[in-house]
């Protein structure tokens, strides 16, 4: 189900952002092109911190 998958991805992205903020880093351009997802391991990578 697309809705279930979307909610799972949203949770993973939020968890990633919390980890980034916990380390006192702020990403100033969170957008879809800056969020990479590896479906093999269900891992999100947030890129472009400039």
TrEMBL record:
<dbReference type="GO" id="GO:0004672">
    <property type="term" value="F:protein kinase activity"/>
</dbReference>
<protein>
    <recommendedName>
        <fullName>Protein kinase domain-containing protein</fullName>
    </recommendedName>
</protein>
<dbReference type="InterPro" id="IPR000719">
    <property type="entry name" value="Prot_kinase_dom"/>
</dbReference>
<dbReference type="GO" id="GO:0005524">
    <property type="term" value="F:ATP binding"/>
</dbReference>
<dbReference type="InterPro" id="IPR011009">
    <property type="entry name" value="Kinase-like_dom_sf"/>
</dbReference>
<feature type="domain" description="Protein kinase">
    <location>
        <begin position="1"/>
        <end position="50"/>
    </location>
</feature>
């Amino acid at each position: 189900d697309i809705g279930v998958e979307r909610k799972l991805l949203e949770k993973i992205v939020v968890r990633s952002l919390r980890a980034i903020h916990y380390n006192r880093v702020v990403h100033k351009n969170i957008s879809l092109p800056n969020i990479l997802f590896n479906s093999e391991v269900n891992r999100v990578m947030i890129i472009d911190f400039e």
